[in-house]
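Hey, resending since the last one bounced:
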Amino acid sequence: MKYLASLLILFSFGHVFAQDGYLPLDADKQIHYSDSGQPNLSKDELFKKTQDWVGKTFGNYQNAVTFEDPKAGILRITSYVPLIHARFAYARFDLTITVSDNKYDAHITTLDGVSPVHSPERISAKENETISSQEVLIKAENNRKKRAELEEELKLLKADNDGINTAMYNLLGSLKQFTN
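The structure tokens again:
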């Protein structure tokens, strides 16, 4: 029962934090997912627990970790998560986790869509701009048939972004669950 409840919580994170089809951006209009936690652990215990999470989540710790500094409490991971997306099968991301006594901060910044049929593509603010442009076109369209087609395209664009949001928030949620 405990595992079922945990799974439901993880899957709900994406829906709770999703921004109705928009990807989260920082002040510089760059993709930015973040989370923090306050587990009752010392810096060293929390760093070790975070390392354990990396090994369990990504399988091979050495392949996933691109930088680690236990003294500073910084761990940077570059890895992949599967996506539900029309163009991409996976997202490659950079996740930086900074730990201190009783606290961690996690930030996902760089995000690339990966497909078996084309080179990786940077996921950026342009995905949100495409949605905004599509919404403007729908408002301006008078032809019902064309408007319905544009609305269907908009649903697909938003679903793709929601797929990315769900994957990223589930990843951050699993870190939170593991460290608590």
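Strands lie at 33-37, 65-69, 74-82, 90-100, 103-114, 121-122.

Sorry for the duplicate.
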